[in-house]
């Protein structure tokens, strides 16, 4: 316990009438160092106004952007064994889960909802990166599978928003088993003739990239997102070569044919609406902005 910080400073502040300033009141742009007021950043969908840098966006905020606040059905979280391996590293796995739930008000990393986008029913599945780095465990895998099953039952498309550091090491082989399980769910949706679009966000790495994140009918990426399997340092040490500065970014993958579009976050709802209606063979809404298909247009 720090006596000065935890006892003396609060006593002085209370006597002088000072108020503690929240730590997240101002957000610093990782690219330019620009300081942005938290409320302004939130209103701009977590995009830095001047630089256009895409910060990580909370999962619930993404649902609200797609469907409108409260205009969707939130799918229930599946019940699974919380700590199947009784895992402990520097702290217990159960403690890490509790910390993640306190931090995000979510049961696990996956948030899924059913709603309408430009009049078309769809299922959206979103990773919450703030919950243990969006890692894929048993609960997340089960939530993803149930979302695919709901899309098949509703005969509607599914849009995935991955943001993850990969498989959850605290669940070992049980975590890795979610890769083939979710892959089967993707194939079930495709066999039903329903569209599956993936919107790759920052970062999308590890086992998530090696499974459902790269199996979409169309792959969209947000500007500047890091997308890959192994980390940059691991690859450089393996091949003993220096990689390009923009390696594993959305723009690099677009130039090399790994993603179909790089689309600004503000334009995602219209782009998704147009693409989904095309894939469902429905007439497009004339009010929707045209879908971007170049890096220059998408990031302008």
List keywords for this structure.
12 helices, 7-stranded mixed beta sheet, two-stranded antiparallel ribbon, 300 residues, disordered C terminus, 9 strands, 2-enoyl-CoA Hydratase, Chain A, domain 1, alpha/beta
Task: Explain how this protein is built.
The protein starts with a helix and ends with a helix. Mean pLDDT is 90; it is low at 296-300. It is of the alpha/beta class. The chain has a seven-stranded mixed β-sheet with strand order 3-4-5-6-7-8-9, sandwiched between helices. α5 (138-154) packs parallel to α7. β5 (120-127), α5 and β6 (158-161) form a beta-alpha-beta unit. It folds into two domains: 21-55, no CATH class; 57-299, 2-enoyl-CoA Hydratase, Chain A, domain 1. It has helices spanning 3-16, 38-43, 59-67, 93-104, 138-154, 172-176, 178-191, 206-209, 232-239, 250-255, 268-279, 295-299; strands at residues 26-28, 35-37, 72-74, 110-117, 120-127, 158-161, 196-200, 218-221, 261-262. It has twelve helices and nine strands. Helices cover 37% and strands 13% of the residues.
How large a portion of the residues is in β-strands, by DSSP E? Answer: 5-15%
Do you know the CATH architecture of the largest domain?
Alpha-Beta Complex
Q: Which structural class do the helices and strands define?
A: alpha/beta
Q: Tell me the count of domains.
A: 2
Helix content, binned percent? 25-40%
Overall geometric form: globular
Biggest sheet features:
7 strands, mixed
Measured between the Cα atoms of the first and last residue, the distance is 49 Å
Segments where pLDDT lies below 50 for 5+ residues?
296-300
The overall pLDDT, averaged over residues, is: 90
In spatial order, strands of the major sheet run: 3-4-5-6-7-8-9
């Amino acid at each position: 316990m720090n006596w000065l910080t935890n006892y003396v400073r609060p006593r002085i502040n209370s006597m002088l009438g000072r108020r503690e300033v929240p730590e997240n009141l101002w957000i610093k742009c990782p690219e330019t160092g620009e300081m942005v007021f938290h409320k302004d950043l939130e209103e701009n969908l977590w995009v830095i106004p001047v630089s256009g840098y895409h910060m990580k966006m909370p999962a619930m905020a993404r649902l609200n952007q797609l469907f409108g606040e409260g205009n969707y059905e939130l799918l229930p979280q599946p019940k699974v064994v919380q700590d199947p391996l009784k895992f402990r590293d520097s702290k217990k796995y159960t403690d890490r889960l509790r910390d993640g739930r306190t931090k995000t008000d979510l049961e696990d990393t996956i948030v899924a909802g059913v709603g309408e986008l430009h009049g078309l029913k769809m299922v959206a599945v979103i990773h919450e990166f703030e919950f243990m780095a969006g890692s894929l465990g048993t609960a997340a895998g089960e939530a993803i599978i149930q979302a695919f099953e709901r899309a098949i039952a509703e005969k509607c498309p599914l849009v995935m928003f991955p943001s993850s550091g990969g498989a959850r090491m605290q669940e070992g082989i049980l975590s890795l088993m979610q890769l083939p399980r979710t892959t089967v769910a993707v194939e079930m949706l495709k066999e039903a003739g329903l569209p599956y679009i993936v919107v790759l966000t920052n970062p999308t790495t590890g086992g998530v990239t090696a499974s459902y994140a790269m199996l979409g009918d169309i792959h969209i990426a947000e500007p500047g997102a890091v997308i890959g399997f192994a980390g940059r340092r691991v690859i450089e040490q393996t091949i003993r070569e220096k990689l390009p500065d923009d390696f594993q970014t959305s723009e690099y993958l677009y130039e090399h044919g790994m993603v179909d579009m790089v689309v600004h976050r503000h334009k995602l709802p219209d782009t998704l609406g147009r693409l989904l209606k095309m894939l469902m063979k429905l007439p497009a809404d004339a009010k929707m902005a045209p879908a971007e298909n170049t890096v220059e247009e998408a990031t302008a």
